[in-house]
């Protein structure tokens, strides 16, 4: 105790949960409840006080026998509190009367009632009393209930001097019935209307209120009725029995000693009744009381003989007796019966120095023969069993057991078999037997008993449960922990478990037994050898465990099991059992089990089963996700077991006995093992990774070496796994572990080599490798190092000349190296694709990466199915980005692969099974729809015509009408709707930090609507935030190309149209020409002016050169992407003279085009565009344009120094003359259409034109001869370029007259 001074210990009112032997108590708890009293002729009610005494038979008042509460001093007299003017007081006061046991029988209680006057406070007038004896005449105590006591009138204390005067009177109603003749001349008269109510509760370990129990305890006073007394014991309340347990047991064994032959069977029955009473949940906690009694207080040294005799007699008669309740009760009480037997024998042996030892052993042997006889009855009958609860461990009562009184009161026998009752109690006797016999002797007893159980498991499900529970308790017992006894018991235990597993019965119980056995063997292995135990378990259980697991897993996968949670629990249990067994097996055990197989087929089935179980362990979620330690342990056991089984696989199933099924199962297991997530150490923290490596090593490497070794041992049989194992092996090489990859990659060389030998090529290896590589990398596997590592294959064609002697070495070598190079390039693209798809990359990068991969499949590998898959992936990306024209061009690639035929096509992607014609029709309609949304109607019209032709062939006029209307709508859209001309930008990606498909390459990109150079630059820098913008258009140096950085070089380029015919037609609307100027364009130009040599400050045209760069793309824009890579770059330097010719040609073309648009107008209108263009050319020419060219190139010094340019000078002169003619025509048209208010502008233009013409007359002979012809000149052909701006004065005049 923490505090032991001044602390009062309060005992429970009533008995505690357990009353230990020697715990003596005799407390009577009395509650003074209430009273009813008469007024007594007074006008007011009384003030009543009750005084209570405890008196002995001689009238002596017992002192200090009244306790008001724990910690209070006991008193002799008790006085109640007084209720003012109340004739029906209610006190409800509780008192404890600790009366000595020797004084209890003849004592009684007396209650005196007094009226306390309010006038004279010192006066308390007695007016009555009540009393009650503490024990009845039959020796029982006052019952635990409320008692209504009679009140007798009395007004003088002296009358109490002789207590015999009132003790003869009835104290209550029950007592009055026992005293019918009371003389009328008694001194004390009963007050009829007055009563006192009290209630009592006795807490005594020596006194009882039960007559039958009292008769048993005092049996010596009634020797003639002992048999009747023993028979009535079963009717005694259980609470009374457990209160007086020690006294009852002492009494029973004293009766047994008195006359064994006469009373033995009844004492045995009574003992069985008491033992089974303690099985009741209500009294289960009194079992320690029984144990304490047996060890410290039991003294029946001769009792064991009669107990053994009676128990054996019961068992021997079990087959004859119809009513077997008493026999079953004896079987249930077996544990404590043996405790009494063993303890009794020990006491006898001590008293006699071991006499009659042989007789005792013989009697035990005979008793066990009787036990086996009872168990053997079930093998001869199929009695149905209703489940009987097994004995529970000491920490809790058995659930569902019946009370003893209920069991005895049953009118018909319980249907539970004797075997069940016996088996439930049997394991509990082992510890008792170990006190008298050696471990081996007890083990032999138990083995013989368990061995006598029926081997069949069809006698009833509940009986199977009882048997297995008995075996389970046997395994849990102390006996099983001893190695010498375990070797004796283990075979019979395993025999019964094997039977149940074979029939798939009671799997959960069997798994619990096996788990306990494995745990015990593991613990024992630390102290002694368990090889023999493990050998027995391997021989009996390994194969049946595999079969059981496969059956459970199969039901779990097919969802046949009723309760998924139960199925998961059972699966986990048996997986643990299997792993425990495999973990404890040594190389010797593996050799023995492999040698025990009688045939090759048996070994094959075993290997297939264990490989299948291992695969399921890795595929199914057997263990929770956070059970990493268990998963690692499982992996270690699997790889160790595989290493032990590999030699048997190689020895028995290679060469002429080759079996594909077993080998394929092995390889599948190895691949799955290496790829399992729990072994990917790269995902762990460095600390966890170090712990795993220190304890297990890298188990992936271990399995990879084993796999490679087994592959090498296949020899010619390798061809059976081509191409089937290419994909799985490729998945292994994608594991980010360098050593695993180095081990696995040579296998691909073997595959190519063996297929080359068989077929003369390795097309199967090539096709399968590419397909699997694409799917695996697309799933997110592989890394940057993999593309470099895979190139190691190129080195594997030289080191094996012996493999190459049988084939043409050069052909094989060249083909192989070419294939590996292609695969390496594919890996580069696939890894870029994976990185773009899994990251938060922009749509442009994803699209570019997909285009790169799609083109590779088409041009280099020619894998049509993969090509089509990526076509649809790219199309979906374009649709998401609203690039409808690009989506149409992309889907058109698949459409072009199809023909207008009725050939059936299988289901593919989202396409159903259909004919090739219908699939192509659906694709054409979808492409036309996308072209319409992208406003590329010119590309949709040919498809409309193609579809219309097909509909016309089939006379499908409804569809033909629809497609013709669609085509007509496209023509209307071309004429009526305004389309913006996009700008084009050249983008260079320089540096090793860019993805492979962009690295050190240049592209031309088609900009979005309204997107100019500045906006495009910002967008690109946003997509590549780490990139640095280069500020010059020059090609980068080699250092930039090889640096670990990102550089972007962006500038605008001009398209060079391919459809010149359309652009040269005069009457084609500009909206139509606008489309062909910026669509279907593959070449782009960029001009960079520079001065070669010294710059002429007076006339810069003399030294102004142009660096003209022409970029040719791989595909025209628009196409399947908004940008394409530059295929070729042509750089040309344009001389000042050639530049002048080009400028004049472009300007003349622009003038002719514009003049032709206004030439046929008759009514004046808005001619601002014509006015501005004429003003820009004439004003520039006057201010120096043409004059500067004349000054620079018509100088005699220039002509003399450039004799080769004479034709070009002549061409320049012709262009100048042509421009003067065109200007003349333009002024004539302008004069007809100009508004009157714009006449000043026209006059100004005419005057400047005259100045221009006169200035050219000095340098160009014959120029005036052509002036009259200028007005009638026709519009010649030309190109387009920008014009020079108008002067500010001309602009003001135009705006004034709008």
Automatic annotation (TrEMBL):
<dbReference type="InterPro" id="IPR056372">
    <property type="entry name" value="TPR_DOCK"/>
</dbReference>
<dbReference type="Pfam" id="PF20421">
    <property type="entry name" value="DHR-2_Lobe_C"/>
</dbReference>
<protein>
    <recommendedName>
        <fullName>Dedicator of cytokinesis protein 3</fullName>
    </recommendedName>
</protein>
<keyword id="KW-0597">Phosphoprotein</keyword>
<dbReference type="InterPro" id="IPR026791">
    <property type="entry name" value="DOCK"/>
</dbReference>
<dbReference type="InterPro" id="IPR016024">
    <property type="entry name" value="ARM-type_fold"/>
</dbReference>
<feature type="domain" description="DOCKER">
    <location>
        <begin position="858"/>
        <end position="1265"/>
    </location>
</feature>
<dbReference type="InterPro" id="IPR046773">
    <property type="entry name" value="DOCKER_Lobe_C"/>
</dbReference>
<feature type="domain" description="C2 DOCK-type">
    <location>
        <begin position="25"/>
        <end position="203"/>
    </location>
</feature>
<dbReference type="GO" id="GO:0031267">
    <property type="term" value="F:small GTPase binding"/>
</dbReference>
<dbReference type="InterPro" id="IPR037811">
    <property type="entry name" value="C2_Dock-B"/>
</dbReference>
<dbReference type="InterPro" id="IPR046769">
    <property type="entry name" value="DOCKER_Lobe_A"/>
</dbReference>
<dbReference type="GO" id="GO:0005737">
    <property type="term" value="C:cytoplasm"/>
</dbReference>
<dbReference type="GO" id="GO:0005886">
    <property type="term" value="C:plasma membrane"/>
</dbReference>
<dbReference type="InterPro" id="IPR027357">
    <property type="entry name" value="DOCKER_dom"/>
</dbReference>
<dbReference type="InterPro" id="IPR043162">
    <property type="entry name" value="DOCK_C_lobe_C"/>
</dbReference>
<keyword id="KW-0344">Guanine-nucleotide releasing factor</keyword>
<dbReference type="Pfam" id="PF20422">
    <property type="entry name" value="DHR-2_Lobe_B"/>
</dbReference>
<dbReference type="Pfam" id="PF14429">
    <property type="entry name" value="DOCK-C2"/>
</dbReference>
<dbReference type="GO" id="GO:0007264">
    <property type="term" value="P:small GTPase-mediated signal transduction"/>
</dbReference>
<dbReference type="InterPro" id="IPR043161">
    <property type="entry name" value="DOCK_C_lobe_A"/>
</dbReference>
<dbReference type="InterPro" id="IPR027007">
    <property type="entry name" value="C2_DOCK-type_domain"/>
</dbReference>
<dbReference type="GO" id="GO:0005085">
    <property type="term" value="F:guanyl-nucleotide exchange factor activity"/>
</dbReference>
<dbReference type="InterPro" id="IPR046770">
    <property type="entry name" value="DOCKER_Lobe_B"/>
</dbReference>
<dbReference type="Pfam" id="PF23554">
    <property type="entry name" value="TPR_DOCK"/>
</dbReference>
<dbReference type="InterPro" id="IPR035892">
    <property type="entry name" value="C2_domain_sf"/>
</dbReference>
<dbReference type="Pfam" id="PF06920">
    <property type="entry name" value="DHR-2_Lobe_A"/>
</dbReference>
<comment type="similarity">
    <text>Belongs to the DOCK family.</text>
</comment>
């Amino acid at each position: 105790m923490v505090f032991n001074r001044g602390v009062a210990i309060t005992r429970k009112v009533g008995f505690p949960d357990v009353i230990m032997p020697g715990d003596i108590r005799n407390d009577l708890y009395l509650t003074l409840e209430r009273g009813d009293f008469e007024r007594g002729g007074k006008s007011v009610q009384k003030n009543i006080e009750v005084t209570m005494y405890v008196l002995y038979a001689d009238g002596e008042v017992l002192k200090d026998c009244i306790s008001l509460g724990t910690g209070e001093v006991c008193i002799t007299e008790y006085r109640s509190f007084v209720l003012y003017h109340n004739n029906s007081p209610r006190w409800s006061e509780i008192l404890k009367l600790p009366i000595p046991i020797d004084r209890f029988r003849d004592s009684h209680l007396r209650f005196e009632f007094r009226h306390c006057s309010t006038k004279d406070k010192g006066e308390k007038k007695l007016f009555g009393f009540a009393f009650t004896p503490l024990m009845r005449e039959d020796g029982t105590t006052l019952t635990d209930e409320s008692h209504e006591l009679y009140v007798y009138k009395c007004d003088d204390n002296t009358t109490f001097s002789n207590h015999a005067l009132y003790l003869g009177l009835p104290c209550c109603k029950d007592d009055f019935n026992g005293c019918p003749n009371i003389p009328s001349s008694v001194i004390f008269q009963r007050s009829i209307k007055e009563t006192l109510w009290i209630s009592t509760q006795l807490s005594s370990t020596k006194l009882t209120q039960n007559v039958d129990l009292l008769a048993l305890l005092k049996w010596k006073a009634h020797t003639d009725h002992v048999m009747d007394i023993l028979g009535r014991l079963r009717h005694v309340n259980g609470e009374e029995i457990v209160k007086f347990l020690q006294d009852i047991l002492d009494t029973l064994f004293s009766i047994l000693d008195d006359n064994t032959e006469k009373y033995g069977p009844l004492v045995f029955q009574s003992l069985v009744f008491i033992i089974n009473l303690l099985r009741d949940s209500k009294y289960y906690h009194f079992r320690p009381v029984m144990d304490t009694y047996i060890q410290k207080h039991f003294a029946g040294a001769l009792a064991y003989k009669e107990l053994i005799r009676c128990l054996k007699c019961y068992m021997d008669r079990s087959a004859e007796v119809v009513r077997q309740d008493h026999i079953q009760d004896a079987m249930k009480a077996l544990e404590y019966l043996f405790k009494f037997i063993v303890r009794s024998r020990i006491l006898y042996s001590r008293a006699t120095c071991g006499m009659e030892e042989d007789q005792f052993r013989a009697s035990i042997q005979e008793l066990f023969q009787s036990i086996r006889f009872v168990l053997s009855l079930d093998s001869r009958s199929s009695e149905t069993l209703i489940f009987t609860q097994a004995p529970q461990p000491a920490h809790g009562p058995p659930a569902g057991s019946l009370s003893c009184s209920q069991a005895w009161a049953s009118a018909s026998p319980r249907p539970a078999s004797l075997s069940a009752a016996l088996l439930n109690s049997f394991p509990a006797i082992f510890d008792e037997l170990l006190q008298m016999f050696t471990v081996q002797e007890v083990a032999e007893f138990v083995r013989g008993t368990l061995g006598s159980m029926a081997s069949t498991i069809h006698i009833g499900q509940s009986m199977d449960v009882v048997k297995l529970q008995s075996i389970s308790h046997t395994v849990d017992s102390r006996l099983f922990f001893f190695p010498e006894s375990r070797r004796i018991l283990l075979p019979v235990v395993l025999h019964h478990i094997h039977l149940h597993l074979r029939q798939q019965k009671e799997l959960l119980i069997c798994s619990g037994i096996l788990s306990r056995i494995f745990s015990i063997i593991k613990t024992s292995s630390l102290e002694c050898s368990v090889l023999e135990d493990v050998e027995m378990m391997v021989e009996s259980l390994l194969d049946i465990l595999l079969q059981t697991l496969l059956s459970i897993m199969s039901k779990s996968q097919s969802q046949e099991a009723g309760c998924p949670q139960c199925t998961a629990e059972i699966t986990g249990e048996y997986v643990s059992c299997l792993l425990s067994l495999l973990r404890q097996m040594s190389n010797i055990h593996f050799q023995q089990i492999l040698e025990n197989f009688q045939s090759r087929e048996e070994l094959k089935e075993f290997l297939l089963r264990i490989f299948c179980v291992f695969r399921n362990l890795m595929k199914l979620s057997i263990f929770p996700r956070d059970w990493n330690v268990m998963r690692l342990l499982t992996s270690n056991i699997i790889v160790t077991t595989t290493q032990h089984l590999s030699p048997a696989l190689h020895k028995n199933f290679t060469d002429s006995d080759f079996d594909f099924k077993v080998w394929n199962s092995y390889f599948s297991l190895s691949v799955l093992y290496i790829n399992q997530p729990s072994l990917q150490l790269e995902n762990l923290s460095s600390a966890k990774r170090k712990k795993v490596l220190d304890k297990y090593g890298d188990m992936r490497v271990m399995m990879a070496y084993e796999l490679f070794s087994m592959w090498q041992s296949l020899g010619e049989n390798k061809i059976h796994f081509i191409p089937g194992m290419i994909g799985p092996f490729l998945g292994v090489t994608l594991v980010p572990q360098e050593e695993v990859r180095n081990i696995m990659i040579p296998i691909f060389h073997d595959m190519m080599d063996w297929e080359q030998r068989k077929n003369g090529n390795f097309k199967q290896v090539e096709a399968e490798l590419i397909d699997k590589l694409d799917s695996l990398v697309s799933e997110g596997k592989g890394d940057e190092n993999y593309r470099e590592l895979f190139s190691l294959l190129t080195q594997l064609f030289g080191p094996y000349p012996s493999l190459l002697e049988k084939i043409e070495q050069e052909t094989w070598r060249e083909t192989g190296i070419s294939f590996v190079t292609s695969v390496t390039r594919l890996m580069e693209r696939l890894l870029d694709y994976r990185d773009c798809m899994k990251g938060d990359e922009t749509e442009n990068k994803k699209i570019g990466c997909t285009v790169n991969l799609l083109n590779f499949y088409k041009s280099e590998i020619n894998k049509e199915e993969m090509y089509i898959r990526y076509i649809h992936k790219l199309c979906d990306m374009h649709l998401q980005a609203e690039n409808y024209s690009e989506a149409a061009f992309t889907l058109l690639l698949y459409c072009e692969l199809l023909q207008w035929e009725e050939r059936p096509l299988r289901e593919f992607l989202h396409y159903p099974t259909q004919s090739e014609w219908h699939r192509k029709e659906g694709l054409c309609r979808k492409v036309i729809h996308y072209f319409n949304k992208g406003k590329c109607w010119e590309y949709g019209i040919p498809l409309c015509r193609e579809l219309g032709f097909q509909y016309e062939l089939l006379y499908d006029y409804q569809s033909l009408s629809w497609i013709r209307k669609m085509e007509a709508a496209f023509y209307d859209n071309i004429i009526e709707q305004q389309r913006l001309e996009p700008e084009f930008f050249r983008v260079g990606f320089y540096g090793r930090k860019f993805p492979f498909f962009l690295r050190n390459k240049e592209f031309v990109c088609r900009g979005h609507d309204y997107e100019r150079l500045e906006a495009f630059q910002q967008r690109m820098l946003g997509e590549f935030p780490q990139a640095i913008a280069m500020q010059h258009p020059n090609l980068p140096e080699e250092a930039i190309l090889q640096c670990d950085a990102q550089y972007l070089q962006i500038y605008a380029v001009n398209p060079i149209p391919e459809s010149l015919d359309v652009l040269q037609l005069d009457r084609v609307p500009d909206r139509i020409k606008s489309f062909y100027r910026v669509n279907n364009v593959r070449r782009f130009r960029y001009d960079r002016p520079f001065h070669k040599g010294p710059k002429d400050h007076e006339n810069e045209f003399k030294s102004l050169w142009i660096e003209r760069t022409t970029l040719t793309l791989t595909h025209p824009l628009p196409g399947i992407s908004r940008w394409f890579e530059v295929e070729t770059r042509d750089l040309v330097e344009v001389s000042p003279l050639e530049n002048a010719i080009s400028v004049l040609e472009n300007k003349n073309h622009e003038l002719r085009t514009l003049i032709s648009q206004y030439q046929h107008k008759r009514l004046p209108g808005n001619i601002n565009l014509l006015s501005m263009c004429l003003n820009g050319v004439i004003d520039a020419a006057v201010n120096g344009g043409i004059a500067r060219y004349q000054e620079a190139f018509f100088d005699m010094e220039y002509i003399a120094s450039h004799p080769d340019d004479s034709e070009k000078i002549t061409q320049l002169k012709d262009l100048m003359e042509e421009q003067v003619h065109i200007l003349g025509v333009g002024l004539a048209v302008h004069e007809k259409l100009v508004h009157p208010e714009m006449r000043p502008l026209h006059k100004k233009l005419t005057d400047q034109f005259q100045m221009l013409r006169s200035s050219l007359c000095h340098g160009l002979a014959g120029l005036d001869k052509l002036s009259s012809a200028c007005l009638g000149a026709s519009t010649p052909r030309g190109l387009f370029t920008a014009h020079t701006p108008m002067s500010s004065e001309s602009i003001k005049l135009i705006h004034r007259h709008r």
